[in-house]
Structures are given as C-alpha cells and as structure tokens.
Amino acid sequence: MFKKVISFFAITLLLFSLCACDINEVITDARDAIFESEGSTDITTSNITVENSNGYRIFTMEDYNVSFTVPKDWYVDMEDAALDMFCENGKVYMGVFGYHTSDFSAEADYLRIWEDQNEGVLEEYSNVNQIDHTPKFDSKDKELKTALYSSEIKNVKQYSYFVFAKPKTNANTFLWIQFSGLPSNILNNFEMLEDIVDSIEFK
After folding, report:
1. What is the pLDDT of residues 3-20, one digit of tens each?
2. 110 close to 171: Cβ distance less than 8 angstroms
3. d(CA 152, CA 126)
C-alpha cells in the first residue's frame, strides 16, 4: 500500500557516490546538463503545473489539489523519479508523495504512515541520528509534523528533513515530504525550506 522512495534514494545515492571529486561541481554539472538538454522549462507531467509569480514559482500537484511556492531557481525534474513530485535548486532536493485519505480505513494513522516512510528511507543510510529542531511555522490551516536527521552515505554526511502535512479541515489528502542535501546546504537554507512548507495550500 505504501509508496516507496527507491528512486529518490537512487538519485541521492548517485549524487553522493560521486564524492571523489568536488560534490558541488558534480551537482552544478548535473544541473547544467538538465538545463542544456531540456532548456529552462521544467520536466513536467500532466498532473503537475508550474506558474511564475512575482519572482517565485508555484508548483501545483493536480492529483492532490495542493500547491506550494518556491524561489524562482527551483525546478521540477520527474525524469527519473517515482515520487509524485521531485524538485530541486541544485543544492536542496525535495521529494513529495501525496496520499488520498479515501484509500485508507477510518482507523488509519496517517502520522504512522509518515513515520514508516521516514524509517524506510533512513534504513538505507549509516550513522543515522535525529537532530533537535524546533520548526517556525505560521500555518494555522495545516497539521504539520517535522523531523530532522543526519546520516551518511559513501562517507559523506547528508541531512534529511521530513515533513508531514495535512489540512485541518476537509482532509481528503496528506503529504509525505523529504528535503535532503549536504548539512551546510540544508542549514543555510532552513528558513527557505520552512517558507516552502508554510506555503503549502490544500484546495
């Protein structure tokens, strides 16, 4: 029943397995290759739309009637992802699974589903440690739960920031989200990541 994040892990593994050379150079080269081959347009599917607005971009997952706002340098890359949505800015990577509550029984524990997904991802890494973090959200219309973890792969550290998001009313969907990247990139962009989470709008 659970959607698994094998492809997301594979993408992360690929990025972090190239650490024999400078990882930022590898990421930049990979991003440039995408832009060169695809132009500046996003790789999208019929269920994801992208709208530019006042220096920001609004990504909408049509299948789940949910949208969120990101800085203008973020783009969608669904070419190799089995997630419902995968987007990035070359430093931080965001994977999203959407779920319809109608697919679960009335007794389903949605937070437990989120936690199971988190655990499944972390099983693939070594030296996993949870990091204390108090999120700063202004959202009053969403139920939000977060967890920040440090882990290692190929002797390189990674931070994973997991987010559970569900509307407080008319809750017919909920989201499992993972932000991942090098610790310095996650920490330097934390305010932005929390702004993205804050911007989630269930329609």
Report:
1. 654 444 444 544 444 343
2. no
3. 5
